[in-house]
Specification:
This protein is about 75% helix and about 0% strand. The chain is mainly alpha-helical.
Amino acid sequence: MARNYKNIQVYHLAYQFVLDVYQKSKNFPKEELHNITSQLRRASVSIPLNIAEGSAKASDREFAYFLNVSYASAKEVEVLLNLCHDLKYLSKQDSELLLFKLDELNAKLYLFLRNVESRVKSPKRQFFQKFEDKVR
């Protein structure tokens, strides 16, 4: 099934979020460049990348897998943002702003993931469906 990631709203939210993370993390301590800064940026970038990669997959099942990876990366980013705030790398205002945007992104990504998963036919569901149809 051909999908164009550019037509997926949550992809655009994720892409903008990455730009925001890069902007806010550019003044992190230099000694964190290869640690928290790098991990935060890589995990953030993983969100739209997995949406785009999954959109090119042939089945909804494969697409859902990549959306799940994207959602997990977003949860990783949440922990990293909290760490950055606690370590005083982010101001309270910047931390709250990024976490608010991430929360919005997570909510939309989760709903989108559930929508795609609802189109996946599992063998177990198909097996029981024939019995449910007889009962109706």
